[in-house]
Write a structure and sequence with these properties.
heterotrimer; A alpha+beta (146); B alpha/beta (501); C alpha/beta (410); A: 146 residues; alpha+beta; Alpha-Beta Plaits; 2 domains; two-stranded antiparallel sheet; 5 helices; globular; C: 410 residues; alpha/beta; FAD/NAD(P)-binding domain; Enolase-like, domain 1; five-stranded parallel sheet; 11 helices; 24% helix
């Protein structure tokens, strides 16, 4: 299955992925309209310090702890993609507590949201990947941990 | 100190309705032009720091930015132009030699623009490169002048060492130090994939790039940085750098802050020390001295590597080339006055040297006249900008061309011409790790391969149009060229007829 | 065809069903459900009262869950007796089911202390099941005075859930602090004051000595007038089915890390069990939902002949009250270091070079990174924990570790 992978060697810490993510999931056609004067709640986050930066988003684990831990049964795996039913989520943040990658953060309303590989929006392919200026985020098949 | 204000050259124009204050411009500008103002809740800019490298423009996700040339002009006239006046102010301020980067920007003639290429009509059909075989491969090196046979009458096929190129273009010398590790990695990988060569420049060869040795020219310059036996044997050819088109007669000076750990190891000089290339090679004061170095290098490499001598195009280039052709060198590289540099004194860059077109034509003719053209191959460099420039250079007598500025553009360079600052926002002319990583060689090498592949297609199209199916048949074929708007003298030196003739 | 019986129909049962199906797609599965509901998310009952969810959205799995997994569910019936030698279980309706493997996912029940005069109170509720909450809801009025006995997770979530639907809420507890099972004194004080700011009144180190109608006579001598009494003192694991059949039990049914009880072919999972707490290094009842699912899943896989081990269970809770999030995990054992800023407390407990536990209040971003340090027993000398105390970050790991985490299939 194709997943999003990051290579911190090439991450510039520009944070474009966060903005592209927020825009992709805004459902709007104009980025300026969608994001201007708003705090963004992207599903990918750039972590790092002065030297090292890298983007973190859902790993779509083969055995996801968040799915097992969700107290509302709101997170499930559909064709390998870990998805959330936001109508069921009550924002308890148990998934934040268990995700070993620190990949999850709530949205603006306090209800959880997560990377669903842009399957559910108009992008078709992860917007963070298509917008990354340095190929630091890629969307591809990988079999083994490298 | 007095008043020394010079109005910024560029203005940062930000479309407030589009700017989402994502601060990408701020994070990506090593010159610290952009900043987020908490008070105003908006992005602000200090255009005095802007070099117009367009990094912010390229990355702005909402196309909210543009950089324009300021229209705040001094009261200039045809003699005292804006730049000239400002340079006076700068020197009055600093007392220093002005430094610049990349090629000569002055409106001196570009002869490529005044040379046109022939095409076949009716009597000599053109060739369609998509249907017919078309050869762009060239071999550089000394060609035998006589046919030799052994005692049994069989041909002696032993040739002096040659460089094989899949197309008549190479990436010219840019040292590791002046450009980044990732820029070198991109050039090395692209050259290998393309079947051409890149050139280490005078900074030695990073240990990681020995694997690309068969597609590398290793350079020996006056500073002799990073030169050792293993280095000389690592490449496909050795280049002695006598001069550079952007700064003929001038040495080089890479400031200590660019001599970071890796660069220091590669150059074999202490970390943080200035790398000074003297103006002359201190052991070369004559063609005979040059011959000694050529043969020293050949000895060191068991006569397996062709030796290139690179010189800047200067006034008596034809005589110089004639001497080099007799020095034992296999190849002469001539660098015209529009060639680039990582840093050169502005006055030198803008006023010294001659155009490559005239130099090339003069050298080719001189060597032919003297019957020694086969002694050497000729490489022309110094602002070869397109496939058409390549074709014209070959027709003027070059065996191949060197390109560097075009290659850097493919890697992202926006010709802001401030390489000397070391703060290249595109990760090319810098050693700052956070900037170097902006050039991912996966992308960089692919763009170089794309560019050269495109040029090769264009070269084949142009050759086909002329009815020529092998680049060798174009070499020195000046009948394929015509001049426009050139005077008799220029036509005579170029060895071409005027259009209509 | 193999036959599996699951006694109980909560989260552990779902985990068990999904565990069985991962290994065996055609075995017969029978679920014995005491409650007359298909599986729902019990921790959501307070959110239901708060209006953040509803009965439909509270369903832990979709309506077709049992059908899709080929399960027969017997509703409204308790299992009364287990015969491990005959491999049968008897239900209170007289039916006897035979099994190849059985999982006790019987959960727990509210513990009601023998208060004097409790029978004089008209409106007494527990706060555990959907039926409890529906009963409580019908009693709520704008002016009702509510007394909640117990300032633990259940009692406080109940308080949050009903705050906007009643007149006043008083919470009492014998302990000296709120959430005494998961928070230390300092952290508890922070949560308590936040709750107080949101209109909850506390009577700590105090509890009802006796009731008389609408009056509670407290041990301290005070009296509290109330209309509605919610008893949230604690819970007791439902161990009887296994215990009566001779299985080993403590405060819960004793299980190993394959979720096997001491009885052959009998497994147990969820709140009814006493398993191993990897952070404290001892047996404990870990009555939390993630644990129930993972235990159930492990039991299911093993029941169906697979080989699964769940050996890194730790207590962990993410709980929010009126916008203030608190997360705790592991044990409060070992050396404590603290990071504190306005409205934020982060406490870390380390021992033997390992992170053993933490308490976070106010700032919980990426807390799962801390949890993973505990669960995966990552030696602290291989990471840079200092770096992450301000804000959890994957920067603490080496570049190689990150490469594995973010560059490979995990």
């Amino acid at each position: 299955m194709k997943r999003v992978y990051v290579n911190e060697e090439w991450c510039l810490g520009c944070h474009l992925c966060e903005y592209n993510c927020a825009f992709a999931n805004s459902g709007m056609k104009d980025m300026a309209l969608a994001l201007k004067d708003k705090k963004i709640f992207p599903r990918i986050h750039v972590e790092g310090d002065d030297r090292i930066t890298f983007a973190v988003s859902c790993r779509h684990c083969t055995d996801p702890l968040c799915v097992k831990s969700c107290i509302a049964g709101a997170i499930s795996v559909l064709d390998g993609v870990v998805c959330i039913d936001q109508t069921k989520c009550v924002g308890c943040l148990t998934c934040v507590l268990v995700c070993p990658y620190g990949a999850l953060a709530p949205g603006e309303s306090g209800v959880m949201q997560k990377c669903e590989l842009c399957m559910g929006n108009a992008c078709g392919a992860p917007a963070c990947v298509t917008g990354c200026p340095n190929n630091a985020i890629v969307y591809e098949e990988r079999n083994d941990a490298t | 100190m007095g008043v020394s204000f010079i109005y910024p050259e560029f203005e940062v124009v930000r479309n407030a309705t589009r700017c989402i204050a994502c601060r990408v411009c701020e994070r990506q500008c090593a010159n610290e032009v952009h900043a987020f103002s908490e008070e105003r809740g908006a992005m602000v800019s200090d255009e005095a720091k802007c070099v117009n490298c367009q990094r912010c423009v390229s990355l702005c996700p909402t196309r909210a930015l543009k950089i324009v040339k300021s229209d705040c002009r001094l009261r200039e006239n045809a003699n005292w132009q804006d730049d000239t006046i400002k340079e006076i102010y700068k020197q009055a301020d600093s007392g220093g030699v002005l430094l610049s980067s990349m090629g000569n920007p002055k409106p001196l003639p570009v002869y490529w623009h005044k040379i046109l290429i022939n095409a076949s009509q009716v009597t000599n059909p053109p060739i369609d490169p998509l249907r017919e075989p078309m050869e762009t491969r060239v071999f550089l090196g000394k060609k035998p002048t006589v046919i030799r046979r052994d005692e049994n009458g069989r041909l002696d096929c032993q040739l002096p060492p040659q460089i094989e190129l899949a197309m008549p273009v190479m990436f010219s010398a840019m040292s590791y130090g002046s450009i980044s590790y990732n820029a070198h990695a991109s050039l090395a990988r692209a050259a290998t994939e393309l079947g051409i060569l890149y050139n280490t420049g005078e900074g030695g060869l990073h240990e990681d790039f020995y694997q690309y040795g068969s597609h590398t020219i290793v350079q020996v310059a006056s500073g002799r940085f990073g030169v050792h036996e293993g280095y000389l044997n690592a490449g496909a050819a050795i280049e002695i750098k006598m001069g550079q088109g952007a700064k003929p007669g001038i040495g080089g000076h890479l400031p200590g802050e660019k001599i970071v750990e890796d660069v220091s190891r590669t150059r074999m000089i202490p970390q943080g020390t200035d790398a000074i290339s003297p103006a002359p090679h201190h052991d070369i004061y004559s063609i005979e001295d040059l011959r000694q170095l050529v043969f020293s290098l050949k000895e060191a490499t068991n006569y397996q590597k062709p030796v290139i001598v690179k010189v800047a195009a200067v006034h008596n280039i034809a005589a110089i080339a004639s001497g080099i052709a007799r020095s034992g060198a296999d190849i002469i590289a001539i660098d015209g006055f529009r060639g680039g540099t990582g840093a050169a004194p502005t006055r030198i860059r803008d006023n010294v040297g001659i155009p490559i077109e005239l130099a090339l034509a003069a050298v080719d003719q001189r060597l032919r006249d003297e019957g020694i053209r086969g002694n050497v191959s000729l490489i022309a460099g110094g602002s070869i900008r397109s496939a058409a420039d390549v074709v014209k250079a070959i027709a003027l007598g070059a065996d191949a061309c060197y390109v560097a500025t075009a290659a850097l553009l493919a890697l992202g360079c926006h010709l802001c011409r401030t390489c000397q600052s070391g703060k290249c926002n595109w990760g090319i002319a810098t050693q700052r790790p956070d900037l170097v990583k902006r050039l991912n060689p996966d992308l960089g090498s692919q763009r170089l391969v794309n560019l050269m592949t495109a040029w090769r297609h264009e070269i084949m199209e142009i050759m086909g149009g002329m009815g020529i199916n092998s680049i060798e048949a174009l070499k020195g074929n000046r009948l394929m060229l015509r001049g426009v708007g050139l005077n008799e003298k220029e036509l005579q030196i170029l060895g071409i007829s005027h259009a209509g003739e | 065809m193999s036959r599996y019986v699951i006694v109980g129909n909560g989260t552990a049962a779902v985990g068990c069903i999904e565990g069985i199906r991962r290994v065996n797609t055609d075995a017969e599965i029978t679920v014995v459900s005491e409650e007359n509901h298909s599986v729902y998310s019990r921790p959501l009952i307070s959110y239901y009262l708060e209006g953040k969810t509803d009965l439909e959205r509270m369903k832990y799995r979709g309506d077709d869950f049992y059908e899709k997994n080929g399960c027969r569910v017997i509703y409204g019936v308790r299992a009364t007796a287990l015969d491990p030698s005959a491999k049968t279980v008897t239900l209170e309706n007289g039916e006897t089911l035979s099994y190849d493997a059985l999982c006790s996912a019987t959960g727990s029940r509210p513990f009601v202390p023998p208060f004097e005069g409790l029978d004089t109170v008209k409106q007494t509720f527990s706060f555990m099941t959907l039926d409890d909450v529906l009963a409580l809801e019908s009693a709520l009025t704008d002016t009702a005075r509510v007394l909640i006995v117990g300032a633990g997770l259940i009692g406080l979530k109940c308080a949050e859930g009903i705050r906007d639907r009643v007149g006043s809420i008083t919470v009492c507890d014998l302990a000296d602090r709120v959430l005494s099972s998961i928070l230390d004194t300092d952290c508890a004080a922070l949560v308590q004051s936040h709750l107080e700011e949101n209109g909850i009144r506390f009577m700590l180190q105090d509890s009802a000595a006796r009731f008389d109608g609408n009056t509670a006579y407290m041990k301290s001598g005070q009296t509290v007038e109330f209309d509605i009494l919610v008893l949230a003192v604690g819970v007791r694991a439902n161990i009887e089915l296994v215990k009566d059949a001779g299985g080993e039990t403590g405060r819960g049914i004793l299980i190993n890390n394959r979720m096997e009880t001491s009885l052959p072919h009998v497994f147990a999972a969820g709140d009814c069990t006493e398993g191993y707490d990897a952070s404290a290094g001892m047996r404990r009842v870990l009555a939390i939902l993630p644990n129930a699912y993972m235990q159930g899943h492990t039991a299911g896989v093993n029941m169906a002949g697979g080989d699964a081990v769940f050996d890194n269970a730790i207590p962990m809770n993410s709980i929010g009250f009126f916008g203030l999030h608190t997360m705790t995990a592991g044990s409060g054992d070992g050396e404590m270091t603290e990071e504190r800023s306005e409205g934020i407390v982060k406490r870390f407990f380390t021992k033997d070079g390992l992170l053993k536990g933490f308490m976070l209040i106010g700032q919980t971003d990426r807390a799962g990174i801390y949890t993973s340090l505990i669960r995966e027993k990552i030696p602290l000398d291989t990471i840079d924990l200092e770096l992450t105390k301000q804000a959890a970050s994957n920067l603490i790991f080496s570049q190689d570790t990150r490469k594995k985490k973010f560059g490979g299939v995990v």
